[in-house]
Amino acid sequence: MSIHGTHEPEFVEVLAEFERNFAERGEIGASVSITVDGKTVVNLWGGVADPETGAEWTEQTLVDVWSCTKGATALCAHILADRGELDLKAPVAKYWREFAQNGKDGILVQHVLDHQAGLSGLREQLPEGAFYDWDLMTDALAAAEPLWTPGTTHGYHGLTFGFLIGEVVRRVSGRTLAEFFDAEVAGPLELDFWLSLPEDQESRVAPTIPPDLTKPGTPVPSLYMLAMSDPTSIPGLMMFNTGGYMVPGEFNSRRAHASTIGSVGAVTDARGLAGMYRPLALGGTFGDVRLVKPNQVAVMGQVTSACAVDAAVLVPTRFASGFLKTVDNRHLAPNDQEGILLAEDAFGHSGMGGALGFADPRARLSFGYTMNQQGPGIGINERGQSLVDATYRALGYHQVTEGGSWFR
């Protein structure tokens, strides 16, 4: 497999692992980008963007990064908080009056960022195409009764997070989530990163290739097994009450890419993910662009919620006000081992099947990895983790056996 791009000599192991992903780990098309001290030290891509047409993955190829989108959405909220326009400790209903229905008047913005709001899914059946109708989704969430007492536990809001935080951003800023992100983040940083993809960019998108969970030997995560056996369970409501969005192929449609789905719908490449996190790795500012002040970066990296068994994904998870933190699930059964092993100071977000973007302020590192072939879990698999591991080793880090975190 031909690999293209550049890397600094000390990051040659990242190149080697990227090549191994194609040769040994089932990679089809992918890109990886890394910055240190604001400088791009790795920019690699390769493989096939669309197996049906044989189109190559080029430097201009984009792909849906799934839940990496949540990092972009959370960043928008933190920008408003940093400016004093949004209080993360205030009730959501302070900004979104209709949200107070059905006993939700006490749900804080922080609860939503921490996946503690009890709105991982909706009980009422959503109509076809619901995720493409912002008002329909926000009205449904405003009217909903929580699935548990908010603030008492957390359960990953895998597909509702973006509507919840995105509506808060809209109410506070007067702009849609996509408009706000483009004006405040993607535009100033000159990122190829879209929360609502223009039609003239559609031809650049590599279709997502979902895993074949029916293939013998494929480790099917517990959340999928429960969701399929009980659609009324929290995992079932999260995964299957989506108005058809999770039907295979639908998420690759033009309608999906054009819509703003702030949980899972962003389209970008590895440079876009690494570029978004680059200012956050440097105290909040890169060049002439300040996203937030250093004290807000500290807030973004601080663990605010941790759970031994997440109510929605059924494995341990740790959150930091909208971002994922390192969590070692390697001790679990083989079907639930996908986690994310970073240094403790790092924060970011993975995407279903393996994509990843994060910042590590202590290492002054930002990282982005995108691919079209999904793994079976919602965390990162050995393809992405091998690139993370090689990156930290290049920076002189070592891994702690207990907990899996990297340290220097």
Automatic annotation (TrEMBL):
SUPFAM superfamilies, per the entry: beta-lactamase/transpeptidase-like
Superkingdom, natural source: Bacteria
Signal sequence bounds: none
Domain Beta-lactamase-related, residue spans: 18-376
Protein name: CubicO group peptidase, beta-lactamase class C family
